[in-house]
Amino acid sequence: MKSFFHVQDIGDLSKALEEAKQVKATPYAWQHLGKNKTIILVFFNSSLRTRLSSQKAALNLGLDPIVLNVNGDSWKLETRMGVVMDGDKSEHLREAIPVIGSYCDLIGVRSFAGLTDKEFDYNETILKQFIDYSGKPVISLESATVHPCQAFADLFTIEEYKTVKRPKVVMTWAPHPRALPQAVPNSFAEWMNAADVDFVIAQPEGYELDPQFVGNARVEYDQMKAMEGADFVYAKNWSAMNPYGQVINKDMSWTVGARQMAVTNNAYFLHCLPVRRNMIVTDEVIDSPRSLVIPEAANRVVSAQVVMKRMLEEM
Ligand code: AN0
Ligand code: CP
User: Fold this and answer.
1) CATH says 3-146+300-313 is which class?
2) I need a labelling partner for 136 at 20 to 30 A (CA). Which of 128, 247, 252, 299 fits?
3) How confident is the model at residue 72, as a pLDDT?
4) What percent of the chain shows pLDDT beyond 90?
């Protein structure tokens, strides 16, 4: 695996899920793979889970993690080509990336969508530069359009908790005060479309995701109707594609609460976290025994470890 970005990069999903099960059961069985190897984790944005779970996954594999907080620890990095660098950015990605690549064997990158220039974001301009200029395998730790480590952990969590062969999984938009990227719902949709589940996206008019990620998923504008008989409810906010990156609606009737959960098949509740309580989901639902948000977050170590393990095995 040269880069981890889309669901296709992981290959056969049932094999990947089987491997995740093994990694979870015996996390230290592959310590030899990372010996004398280093992963550099580059963060352009905040993180709790991705930062910690990626480091823990690396340590489990005997791989040394180094974290670089761009904007905090390093020089501010210019990401656009052909600009006169007379502003606050002291260094260009064109030099920084090969330098980072020379110090490590694997690279992870978190660089959120800027949500102002759709083309810049949807071309994955920053992640692609890491792939092109580092010479090392690159893992998206949530880049402009995808969050594959999250979606892999989400799918593994569904696999662990499902009680029917083909569960109904409903991803519902929920309100949030600020504009958020589409990366998490894009990847969740991409991975659910590839998995053996009955997948529905519930959203208000105007929050349609990019068709390349929606694929053949059923899109439902009536949230209560979508929820009927759901086995898993996956809540997430995202901003609109058109006008790009804008909050066009904060309809609080979409907050996931007891009313929505009542029409499901006693569904489990999932969210990638961080979550805003009583905006995205009520206290009652997230604190209920059907909420899987903590085991879901714990599985982030497993998904990251499978990805790093496979990259190390190919070296
Ligand atoms: C980010 C997002 O929605 O993409 C990160 C989620 C993992 N969330 C926030 O910025 C609140
Ligand atoms: N779910 C997730 O990626 O969380 P962080 O932003 O805290 O890493």
Assistant:
1) alpha beta
2) 299
3) 79
4) 98
Ligand found nearest the CA of 152:
2
pLDDT in tens, 140-177: 999 999 999 999 999 999 999 999 999 999 999 999 99
How many Å lie between the centroid of ligand 1 and the Cα of residue 84?
A: 31
Give the model's pLDDT for residue 222. 98
Same topology for domains 3-146+300-313 and 150-296, yes or no? Answer: yes
CA of 126 from ligand 2 middle (Å) equals: 19
Domain ranges for the chain, please list them: 3-146+300-313, 150-296
Best mutation site among 49, 142, 149 for ligand 1 pocket (most ligand atoms within 8 Å of CB): 142
Is residue 184 in contact with ligand 1, taking CB distance under 6 Å? yes
Stretches in the chain below the pLDDT threshold 50: none
Distance of alpha carbon 239 from alpha carbon 200, whole angstroms? 18
In 3D space, the residue among 287, 176, 25 whose CA is nearest the CA of residue 185 turns out to be 176
**pLDDT single digits (tens) 225-248:** 999 999 999 999 999 999 999 999
Closest C-alpha to ligand 2, atom 3? 50
Tell me how many degrees the CA angle 305-311-315 measures, rounded to the nearest 5.
Answer: 135
Q: For 223, what's the count of Cα atoms within 13 Å in the CB-facing half-sphere?
A: 22
Residues 150-296, CATH architecture: 3-Layer(aba) Sandwich (3.40)
